[in-house]
Structures are given as structure tokens and as C-alpha cells.
Fold this sequence. Notes:
The protein is α+β, with helices and mostly antiparallel strands.
Amino acid sequence: MLKKKPPVLRHFLSLVSRRANHLARQQYDVIVVGGGHAGTEAAAAAARVGAETLLVTQKINTIGALSCNPSLGGVGKGQLVREVDALDGLCGQAGDWAGIHFSILNRRKGPAVWGPRAQLDRQRYREFIQSELLSTPRLTVLEGSVEELLVTEPDTAEPGHHRVTGIRLVNGSHPISASSVILTTGTFLSGSLFMGQTTSPGGRIGDAPSSAGLSHTLRERLGLRTGRLRTGTPPRIVKDSVDLSLAQIHPADSHPTPFSFLNKHTRCKPEEQLPCYLTSTTPGVERVVRESLHLNHHIHEDTKGPRYCPSIESRVLRFPGRSHQVWLEPEGVTSDLLYPQGLSMTMPPDMQLRLIREIPALHRAEIYTPGYGVQYDFVCPTQLSPALQVKSTQGLFLAGQINGTTGYEEAAAQGLWAGVNAARCALDLPPLALSRTESYIGVLVDDLVSRGVTEPYRMFTSRAEFRTSLRPDNADLRLTLKGFEEVGCVSPLRYQEAVRVRDSLQDALAALQTLTLSTHKWRQKLPDVCISENKNTTLSGVELLQYNDASFEMLASAFPESLSAYLEFSQRLKIEAVYKPHCDMQRKEIERIQKEESMSLPQDIDYLSLPVSLSQEVREILDRVRPSTLGAATRLQGITPAAVVNLLRYVRNTE
Ligand code: FAD
């Protein structure tokens, strides 16, 4: 049920934003600073939980701006979008509204690690997010720049502990009070922009950095440790100047898969989707990079950049002599620009033009805006609790790039979770945490608060030990019910839909389980499924679905009375059946850990050389702390559930 935007959206936005500048009140439950991907989800989530919320951001018209690539999702990131959607967040629905090229990445691998992804129309994405926020009950949006965070002096009973009381705006005469404040300032904290030999203050091209007062409060008054990271973006290229016949066309999926569990279709019809194009660098590109090195300040900085989204300079210097892929991606339905993914660069603009023209498809290309780099401060996230609250400052929450992550999806996921907890804190409700066993959001937050970051953190499926259970297809069953019943951030409408899906899937699986036939009978019923001849046992419908060439549609046409009612869930049932044995085993292991919480761990155990699969980091933590029980090991920061499972198996085997 794709949401419809009002046709007079722009007029509506200007009216609301003008009204928003006259604040109705000076006291809020929650104030969110920053209207990027973290801030928008945070503000919407806090309001959904029931908190009177204020979102303050530098410019209302940049709310929901895609600072870099016009795309959402991907491997690991798509899982986060589905989870944010399952908790009633905005980005999934915005992606379905703004998507112009949908594809499932990693399709050759199992569905657990498929990556739903879409190219987006930048303008449509921003308009959707702005329209949603400006019509959210209990949420006020204010254009302004936050100069200072207001905090109490340290508590004498608890030295070093502060409490946040509100914010003060640049040029603001009086403070605005709140019980909780969420900072989501992205790349803007002490931000500097780099292009060639020029450096200027900025959080993003065209936007000023966060005021120095904010960094001062975090570092000097609250004593928080900060670090510095960097990232960069490619030049935008005029589409008409590109010879696309020299690039390889990549069409979108013929059936777009929506991000949102509430949508059956995307706004863009299958035939309206725009293609992407693939091309690659030549030796000339490497030559220009080397010739421009002395003119490129950003590349000489020691600050760490995103390892998995490196600049063309870093790629060429790390892998000399190779050809590197460049994707030419559309920026929107009516946009005249292409986004060259893989060509992020910070050399002077004239060298950028020389570089792109070394690529055959771009030999006459024109640059609309040059690429640039940004360096910014982040707060070391080990200083946060699993609720994303600063441990030493009651009521202060941080989310998004300020915590050392990179990417819209990582920011959105943290924003939602910080929004939920900031609202709960303001409403005197206990904080909530999501575990690594139930969500990628739990993995993300746990990685940040227990391990910290040394380079921009992005999500991968390999970070989730329980990825076969944490699939994009089942995020609603994992999170929507909990989101409504325990967290309070999910609407009744979405909850009812999730209950309907859960009940239907349970009924369908029960029907498949009772459908038990001999392999001989199955071969007669489904001759197209290759069931091995020598097997003469019985198989349930669930077991039969585990065969590669069996589909739920086949079973439903053979047994229409018991199965045809569930055809709507064909793909989900196939995936459930395929992963069932593995997920059942994992669930049992998790239950066993919970049951064996009090199991003693031998005190003479040599964790550093234990012959089980444990990372060096986990070994060192266990060796240092030497927990007395399995439960104590489970609660240690940095110890993953998978490590506890391996420890449990080892101790049981040696008893
Ligand atoms: P942002 O989206 O940056 O939003 C921050 C918001 O806070 C802005 O709206 C800003 O106006 C507001 N704000 C800041 N300070 C104040 C203040 N004091 N008062 C009020 N409002 C304030 N990600 C990738 O995954 N890959 C990439 O290659 C990549 N390259 C990038 C290149 C550039 C040049 C930039 C700028 C970003 C890049 N990103 C990249 C990062 C991506 O944009 C971010 O990960 C994502 O936007 C983070 O979301 P956020 O909500 O944390 O912050």
C-alpha cells in the first residue's frame, strides 16, 4: 500500500517550515540535532513512541538529502533497511517511493545474504522524508543551527556524571529544554572540505560545519574521546556528454522488490526503471592520479577513510596496474546527471576532468560539480551504552556518522534505535537493547559500543553470526511484533499486517509438515523434482521444499485444498523451509546458553590457546576477565553469542 504524497507538496512544505520557525514551546521531551538519515529516523521514532519531539536542523530543505550516492540498500545494508522498516521507520517506504532501479544483489548466494538495493531519485527521496516528518504528530521541525549543548555540572555523588538539559541555538536568545537530546551531526562536527590544495570549513558542499561550541561541549565539558575520519564523493557528470554505447548496460530486476513490508509494489513501474551502466578505468587514469598527487592534500592525510568505498586515488595506489570498475548510475527521473560510482576523488577540478576523459565512455564528458573530500570528528562509540546513550551523561544520545559509521542505512538504523531510547528515557521507561541474535541493528550497535571503530564502519552480512536467521525476508517477524508489543514504535496497522503474515506462515508450515508422503508418492505427484531414487523413506512438505528444484507453487498445484490459500507467501515459505534445519539448530543453541547460564567455567582454562573457533579479541577479553560462569561470559562487552556457543561446546566436551 504505497503512500501517496500530496500533489502540492512543495507549497505545503514551505508553509510548514515557516510555521515551524515560531516555536510553540520551549520544553520538549526529546530534541534531535540534525536532519540527515540518523536524525530523521530518530525524530520520527521518538514521536512514535510518544515523546514531544523537536528536530533542529541547519536547513529544512536538506532534510533527507543523500550527501553522496543516490542509492539505498545493498548487501548487509539492505538488511538494515528492512529492519528499520519493520520497526516502522521511514527509509524503506521512502526507497519504494523514490526508487528508479531495483535489484537484489548477491542473488547467486542464499536468500539470507541477498542484498535488496535501489537507485534513487534524489529529489523524490528528500520530498518523501520531508513530507512524512512535517506531518508526524508530536514532532516539530525547526530550522536552526545548534551552538551549544546544555548540561548540568558533574554530580558530586557520581563524579564525572552529567545530565543533559537542552540546547542553545546559534543567535538563539534563550535555551530550549529537553529531557533527552540526540546528536546526529553526521560529517559536520569540525568538518573540513578538501579539493586539490584547497581546504575550507564545511560539513558537505554548500553547508557550514557544526559550530565549534558543540565540539567544545563534547570534548572539554563532557570529556568525551573523539577521533577523526574522512570520506569523499565523485564528480557528477552531465549525462548528455557521456557515450553510453561504450559502456555495458545493466537493466534493473524485471520485478522490483519493495523494501517495505507494507508495499506490494514500488512507485516506479517495472518498465519505467532506468538502467545503470558499467565501464572501467584505463592506464591513463592511473597516470593522472600519479601526476596530481602533489596537488591533492586529502590523499596525503593520515586520517582513515572508508576501506570498502575507497577513492580512485586510493584504489590506484593500492592496486597499481589494474583496471577498476566504474558504475554510471542515474541520479533521478528528470536529472541530467550521472553518478560515477568508483570515481570518488579530491584532486583539483581540472585534473578531475582530465582523469574522467581517460575512460572511453567519458572521453567527452563534462563535469557538473567536482568531487571533494570531507574530514570530520567522531565520538568513540565505546563511550555509549547499548541504548546509544553517552554513559557519562544522562539523557544524551548519539547516532549516525558521529559514531564513526558510514552510510545512510547504518545511520538510519542507529537513529531509529536512539530515538526509541531517548523517548523512553524522557518518559521514564527503562532502556531497551536489541541482541545480535535477533537483528542486524543489534549487531551494529553491539559492534560500535563494545568494540569501537578505527575506520569508518559499514555493515556486512559477515558481521552477523546468526545471519541465516536474520534474513531480509523475515525482519517483520523478528521485529514488528516486538516493536509494537514491547517498544511502542510500531503502528497498529503495521502490527496487524505482521500478525496476519505470522499466522498465515505458521498455518502454511503446519500444513506442509502434515503433508507426509513416501518418496515414491512424491515422485509420482511432482515428477519435475529430482528426488533421489535410492531414498525410500517418507518426506514432509517442508523437507520436500528443501530440494533446489521444488517450489511452493508446485506443491500448491498438487495439493490445492490444503495449500493454495498460502500462494501469496510462496517465496517466504521456500526460504523458511530451506533454512529451517539450520535455524532450528541455532535456536536450540541459544536456548541452551540461556539454560546453562549458571554453568561454571574452569578457572585454569587457557583461553589464548583454546582449540576452538574464537577470535583473538574474544580470547584476550576472556583471558583478562576470566568469567566464573557462562552467563558472566555472555554479558561481557565484545563477547559474541557465537563465541559463547563455541565455549559451551568446548566445556561440555571436556567435562
Ligand atoms: P548526515 O546525513 O551528514 O546529516 C547530518 C545533519 O545534521 C545535516 O542535516 C546537517 O545539516 C545537520 N547538522 C549538523 N550540525 C548541526 C547543528 N549544529 N545544528 C543543526 N543541524 C546540524 N557514505 C557511504 O556509505 N559511502 C560513501 O562513499 C560516502 N561518501 C560521502 C562523501 C561525502 C562528501 C559526504 C558528505 C558523505 C558521504 N557518505 C558516504 C556518508 C553519508 O552521507 C553518511 O553516512 C550519512 O549521510 C550519515 O547520516 P547522518 O544522519 O549521520 O548524517
